[in-house]
Amino acid sequence: MKRRSRPRLARVMVALVVAALIGAIAPSISTPPSAVAATDGQMVYPASGIIQSKVGDGCRSNHRVHDGIDISGQGGTPVLAAYDGTIRARAWSNSYGNYVDIEHPGGYVTRYAHMVSPGLVAPGGTVVRGQQIGVVGNTGASTGAHLHFEVWRNGSVYSAINEGFVCLSTVGRGNPLPHTFPGLRTTPTSAVNSADYDRDGKADLLGISAKSDLTFLAGTGNGGFRAASPITSGWSLYRHLTHADLNADGRADMLAVRSDGLLEFYAGGANGGFDQHQRLQTGWGTKLHVASGADYTGDGLQDVLAVSSSGVLTIHRGNGTGALPGPHTTLGSGWSSITHMVGGDFNGDGIGDIMAVANDGNLYYYRGLGNRFSARVTVGGGWKTFTGLTGGVDYTGDKKADLVARAANGDLYLYAGTGAGKFQTGRLISSGWGGYIQLE
């Protein structure tokens, strides 16, 4: 066998050394064992290093105008997603350098700045807690390798994040961040399943028939419903029904408003159906609209929406026990022009939204922002002919909130949600519902 010359061997050794050096300084790509879907509302530290600054705190007994946490660390080391979410932005700015924004449940957005590159996941992609999204760098207005980490909630800097960091202490990426984030938890029963009354994983319908019977229509999971079956009689006094999980036990509950003004709570039973009801409040008989089925305040607990006889919209805050102790949020007037109103999480961000039909016949989408709603967006026209509207839950099995509308001739139409505040073309699913007083 011919022996290789020493110069050739020397070149090989040099190449190996260069490769080793490149590997030492190249960005690290890894997927830690903690990169799994989260359900407990617990964020993790996104990078390893020393805490040099916090929100409004320079960590040297000095105030600093600063919206995030600075974690100084070794350049090229991994940056992890603090929690499950969707990449909202992957961009560059002169101040942040290369940065990534992730949108999370509960109205939270986290930002990871000064990274070596704009990130490993494109906008619109989903990530899970602990998944690597980039590497620590020194880009933008930065004087040394570090991660600038921000948390925003409902459009404002979330300064409470300071509780999870101690100045000049060392943190390790992927370790639990010791702070409770209200509303971040992804609960086993989401808003889109809060009308599953028989606990088979499929959203159902309730109705009050022309005979004043409370009836149950089991969902098939593909947008249809089985034949109606009576539950009990004597419901002629009830003006509003709405689904909810008001006691946060993962079971579908029902709220009912009587014409004498009583608001009643029917807790979902362990094996389906309802347990004994309780009276919550009085004075609800004149409400124009009542809706629930989602968290409208961003605290992770379902609330109730109500429109007064004068057209004022109020969020009645739930406390997770089946009660509405408040404080309540009055959002303003102008809602008397609404003919139908449905609550639900129509964009999948964990915050309840509103779909409403106005007297001009348009369907409008109001995106929930936590204790408030965005300006309305027109979804479509031609909805004035409908005599009933319900939904805000998943009737088709795709984890997206849908609508069911009743036409004047008694036909039921399903409008499958897209998960972005819009709907597919309606399709006829049933007939003969003209005599029903309520559908929910």
Short description:
The protein has 440 residues and is mostly beta strands. It has one helix at residues 6-25, and strands spanning 49-53, 69-72, 78-80, 85-93, 97-103, 108-115, 126-127, 132-135, 146-153, 156-157, 170-171, 205-208, 214-217, 229-232, 238-244, 253-258, 263-266, 278-281, 289-294, 303-307, 313-316, 329-332, 338-344, 353-358, 363-366, 377-380, 386-393, 402-407, 412-415, 427-430, 438-439.
CATH class of the largest domain: Mainly Beta
Any idea what the shape is?
elongated
Number of strands: 31
Amount of beta strand: 25-35%
CATH topology of the largest domain: Neuraminidase
Examine the secondary-structure arrangement and name the CATH architecture of the largest domain.
6 Propeller
The overall average pLDDT, rounded, is 87
Poorly predicted runs are 1-33
Q: Structurally, how many domains make up the residues?
A: 2
Radius of gyration: 27 Å
Task: Provide the helix percentage.
Answer: under 10%
Provide a count of the helices: 1
Q: Main β-sheet, in a few words?
A: 9 strands, antiparallel
Structural class: mainly beta
